[in-house]
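Hi P.,

Sorry for the delay on this. The queue was packed all week, but I finally got your sequence through. Input first:
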Amino acid sequence: MTEKKVKSYTNRAPKEYNKLRAFFQWLTCSVVYGGYYRVACGLKIYGRENIPKKGFFIVASNHMSAIDPFLVIAAIKRPVAYMAKKELFEKPIARFFLNLLGAFAVNREKLSVSTIKTAIGIKKTDWVLGLFPQGTRETDGNMENISRGFAGLAKTLKCDILPVSISGALKKDRKPFESNIVIRIGKPIHYNDDTKEMIKIWSDKIIKLSQGETDV
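Then the structure:
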């Protein structure tokens, strides 16, 4: 797929985040993935009381495996528009499902104008924005490679950040009927002009949530 065609998935209009796409996402993530991992891997979700009942926010979780977006969507119970690296849209099958799920392509190296425009458009819908501040998967729990982009987006969009921790989702740990996947949702982080402070707060919350704390 050419670079020009990939760009067509970087700037998505608000009308694309409709009820039909939200239904497909719910069916795929909550019913299929959520149902399977509840039965096969004892999926447990804590902290749902921390999820804002209405309004726009950014869902920011740690990133350990390819199934993370599906698990987070199943936990949040809100349609989530995920930012996905543009390279994924070069693969036909991945592009097909990412498109149906409402994901949009981004350049991990920098925050582009199209990304901001798409995020602003999503804010006008009943969807929320999902992303992984670590960018790539960190299977060892490393919290050093955190992109500043998500805090900058929160500042630009004037919205809170919902921290979500995922544990036990590594492929080697997902043994049917033997493993446990745990998702913990923390209290929202209010946006401010200090992006470094927001990043530190998010990182500290993810560490505490991963360690089993819930009231953070």
